[in-house]
Amino acid sequence: MTINILVLATGLSVIALMFAFTLISGSPPTPTSPRVRRAFLALLPRRLPVGDVYELGAGWGGNAIALAAAFPDRAVKGIELSPLPWLVTRLRLLFRPRKNLEFKRGNFMVQNLSDAALVVCYVGGAQMVQLQPKLAAEMAPGALVLTHTFALPNWRPVDTVQADDIYRSPVYLYEVPINEPDQPSGAVASANQDAAAGGSEADS
Ligand SMILES: C[S@@+](CC[C@H](N)C(=O)[O-])C[C@H]1O[C@@H](n2cnc3c(N)ncnc32)[C@H](O)[C@@H]1O
């Protein structure tokens, strides 16, 4: 009986924790599917610009681990706010460490990205709007940004692909522009997104 109550209390606490951090961060820890991951890895150039690889909102670690394997000569840094996915990933890495992967708990909005060669990010559309000026202000021109499902509002992707998952999820590869046009998301954003996604955007 006591054990049942303990199991129930633990389960409810875990659900409450996940729910609370989804509210705080604005994104549930929905993992990238293997099909979408395959599509985005295929879209990335084998030779990256100089710098480190970041995954912002790295969830359960699947993308960060795959990036560390794909780019063994680069330092890969995963940043995740929600404690449970972060803990699960740290445990995964305890059992199978990756030399070039650092997995930190924190808010990616306070991470300086000036040394980034590549930023990979899968968060909701509202967060993309907040993230775009940060990427433009901190990342070096020519560095790469890869997103899927949700596009950056004002940037024109240099390449796009549709994954072969059930949502036909769009994947977007961007190069950091030399001068970020100072414009809010709106008509230009929609036009860019429609062009890139062929008019279809899947929800996560
Ligand atoms: C849709 S999930 C994607 C998880 C993982 N990147 C993947 O694709 O498998 C978004 C993740 O971003 C995290 N997140 C959202 N805002 C964040 C922030 N400001 N700092 C760190 N993590 C954040 C959420 O906790 C969630 O785990």
Kindly summarize this structure in a few lines.
The protein has one domain: Vaccinia Virus protein VP39 (Rossmann fold, 3-Layer(aba) Sandwich), CATH 3.40.50.150. The protein is built from six helices and seven strands, in the order ααβαβαββαβββα. It has helices spanning 2-25, 34-43, 62-70, 83-95, 125-138, 187-197, and strands spanning 52-56, 76-80, 101-105, 116-121, 144-148, 159-162, 170-175.
Q: How does this model look, in words?
A:
By secondary structure, this protein is of the alpha/beta class. Helices cover 40% and strands 18% of the residues. It is built from six helices and seven strands; from the N terminus they run ααβαβαββαβββα. The protein has a seven-stranded mixed β-sheet. The protein starts with a helix and ends in a 7-residue tail after the last helix. Residues 182-204 have low confidence and may be disordered. The chain binds S-adenosylmethionine (SAM). S-adenosylmethionine (SAM) is lined by residues 21, 25-27, 29-32, 55, 57-59, 62-63, 79-82, 85, 107-109, 122-123, 127, 204. S-adenosylmethionine binds at residues 21, 25-27, 29-32, 55, 57-59, 62-63, 79-82, 85, 107-109, 122-123, 127, 204.
